[in-house]
Design brief:
Number of strands: 8
Shape: globular
Largest sheet: 4 strands, mixed
Order of helices and strands: HHEEHHHEHHHHHEHEHHHHEHEEHHH
Structural class: alpha+beta
Helix content: 40-55%
Strand order of the largest sheet: 6-5-7-8
């Protein structure tokens, strides 16, 4: 069977899943995880927006989470960019990326128009997440390409199609159009601390959210064009079987991860390991060097210096050194000032990162990491990890994620407002519409 026929077959399966999925079909764990992802995403967006200056954007009817209302396109663009600004948004190892940031910003804007029931809202989130995850896992990019704004652009298209109750044919066309428009992304934007990297997600949400409208206007792509973009232009690969493997049976939304450290996920395992060692007596002044072995994607985060705070979030040496010296990796710990701290810069130079090809072979099921600390007193400490705290195999409990929400949004909403938002989302399936949620998350009184 040629690629075109294989892809069309999988697209039909995905569209059937999106169109046919009902709330009653969802396992309780998927429902709970969808609600927690929504709560977590709103917190990430709100704290990200608090750092943006948006006075020049005109007033409108759509939510700029944590602030006011602006136009629909501006809302989608800014909320999406803000969601990933602090590297605190959720992700999924089976998607090789972050599905929710390709979905939630468009979802919030579309809910302003559609005003779905809570059950319909949850169902749309799950449907889009499942399909987005599978596209992320099925596509292989060049190593230089950042995953944001590429193979999961259809996430926004899928959630909007589900909310609008589009038929199967329109869903297929919207997915094809959205994923025919990947961006030319680069990891360089992250390593240099360019905010361009965050705009990838903003543009991805814009394209995806507009896909069904473009289809209605007669603007379409084709399966041939999609394949040409991915196989010939991007020189990428698509594992067609993964595009719908176990869809509707194995809910990948239940296998996501959440983050507490404000840095790239690839850094977290080492941060957790060194935090444990510090509780056991490891002293900063006794560290001679730290040797790290990791899988291919994480090994790219090897720079021992960073141009700015955002770039530092994509450096294992700088992130780890900052955590060791500061004692934590919250939003306020990685700053332009802190990464120039002499103690941090000197320690970062002692941290070496290399790929272990045997670890790379274990992906995506296992993300193995090894850390070897050589101390000045001659003692050598080795720690390794195959599961990072927050992964589905070692998840944070609800209390920890609620605490994260409150910590991130304490300067945006008072305690009473926080509790109202938390309670509302916790009982989202009971709501006749979710306009009230939009009102709660916008400070336009």
């Amino acid at each position: 069977m040629i690629d075109k026929e294989l892809l069309q077959k999988q697209l039909d399966r995905q569209a059937n899943f999106i169109e046919g999925l009902k709330y009653e079909d969802l396992p309780d764990e998927a429902i709970d995880q969808a609600k927690m992802i929504l709560l977590d995403s709103i917190a990430c967006i709100a704290v990200g927006n608090s750092e943006y200056t948006e006075d020049k954007f005109p007033e409108g009817d759509y939510p700029l989470i944590g602030k006011r209302r602006i136009s629909k396109c501006d809302s989608i663009l800014l909320n999406a960019s803000a969601m990933v600004k602090n590297e605190l948004d959720e992700g999924n190892q089976f998607a090789f990326g972050h599905p929710a940031c390709h979905i939630v910003p468009s979802f919030l804007a579309e809910c302003q128009d559609i005003n779905p029931t809570g059950k319909d809202a949850i169902t749309a989130l799950v449907a889009a997440y499942e399909v987005s995850c599978r596209w992320g896992g099925a596509t292989k990019l060049k190593s230089q390409m950042h995953v944001h704004g590429t193979s999961q652009t259809l996430g926004a298209a899928a959630v909007c199609c589900k909310l609008k109750k589009k038929d199967r044919a329109s869903i297929v066309k919207s997915i094809v159009l959205a994923n025919s428009l990947p961006q030319a992304t680069t990891w360089t934007s992250a390593f240099h601390g360019d905010q361009l990297r965050n705009i990838y997600i903003g543009m991805s949400n814009l394209v995806g959210s507009m896909a069904s409208n473009m289809i209605d206007a007669g603007i379409e792509s084709s399966v041939d064009s999609l394949l040409s973009v991915w196989q010939e232009v991007l020189d990428g690969e698509i594992d067609f079987e993964l595009l719908s493997k176990d869809i509707g049976k194995n809910y990948l939304i239940t296998k996501n991860y959440f983050k507490l450290h404000s840095a790239c996920r690839y850094t977290h395992s080492f941060v957790d390991m060194v935090n444990q060692l510090m509780t056991e007596g490891l002293e900063v002044g006794n560290i001679e060097k730290i040797e790290i072995e990791t899988y291919s994607a994480a090994s790219k985060l090897k720079s021992q210096e960073a141009e700015n705070a955002f770039a530092a979030k994509f450096s294992i040496p700088v992130t780890l050194a900052t955590n060791i010296v500061k004692g934590s990796l919250s939003v306020g710990d990685i700053t332009d000032e802190n990464i120039k701290n002499l103690q941090i810069t000197e320690l970062a130079k002692k941290i070496e990162v290399n790929e272990n090809k045997d670890f790379t072979k274990l992906l995506p099921n296992v993300r193995r990491n090894l850390m070897r600390i050589v101390q000045k007193d001659g003692k050598v400490i080795e720690k390794d990890s195959s599961v990072t705290k927050g992964d589905y195999l070692d998840p944070f409990d609800r209390k920890e994620l609620v605490k994260k929400f409150k910590t991130l949004t304490k300067d945006i909403w008072d305690e009473k407002s926080q509790e109202v938002i938390i309670d509302y989302i916790s009982h989202l399936e009971e709501k006749d519409n979710i306009q009230d949620l939009i009102m709660m998350t916008v400070n336009d009184k």
